[in-house]
Amino acid sequence: MNKILxxxxxxxIFDIAIKSxxxxxxxxxxxxxxxxxxxxxxxVSSIDIKISDFIxxxxxxxxxxxxxxxxxxxxxxxxxxxxxxxxxxxxxNSFISNSDQFSINIALISxxxxxxxLIYAPIFEGGKLIFSDENNQVIIYHVDINFEQFLKPLVNxxxxxxxxxxxxxxxxxxxxxxxxxxxxxxxxxxxxxSSAIKFIIFALGKADLYLHFKKSMEWDTxxxxxxxxxxxxxxxxxxxxxxxxxxxxxxxLSYRKLDFINPSFLILTTNLIK
Length: 274
Description:
By secondary structure, the chain is an alpha+beta fold. It contains six helices and 16 strands. It has two domains: 7-150, 2-Layer Sandwich (Fructose-1,6-Bisphosphatase, Chain A, domain 1); 161-272, D-Maltodextrin-Binding Protein, domain 2, CATH 3.40.190.80.
């Protein structure tokens, strides 16, 4: 049971996400935003900043004792062992280029692990919002039809291996990984998505294996890690130059790192583990 947030408090976060999505939707369709380049060369839009300010302000108003760490806002961790971790638009490049594969991510971190997660993709497939309740049940809210659905534990029950990866993932690395680790699957299919959309796809049972070759940031993964773990998936740091089943430490991603950078990792349904 989530001893930190009750359902009333989770509803507050849910509503903050929905209203943030309204800001994103308006900007997406009206194209009333500016694009800036950050010091690291990545792009940020004025909508990212607007949502960042909105979420930070409202989380601080409703949870004054829990600091907010946000990609486009405060990123200074002092002595706090619990904090919200926010990505106002995960998939900014998708948002800017008129793709619906972007999301709003809100997680709550205690020490070095997430204890609550919410991902809202306001346009993807009519709008999908996935979150956890006070009993750590995972719920997906289908915005277009106003319908909540409790999700079941994830198990691969087919002979085909369904793999998801990031848009820019190297095809040869995927082929080599499957050949070296899952050669018993004669058939496999690969689909590529941007942002935390991949976690939604996995949670809906449409993937068995998620390969993430490059570095990512903590606000990209915290919500998704928590939600998929509650559905029984396993998330582990992994060096893709190794054989998975020879080096199966299953070391989780950790949070509260000073640079917020994650190493490469993979996610799989438990029945894929030998």
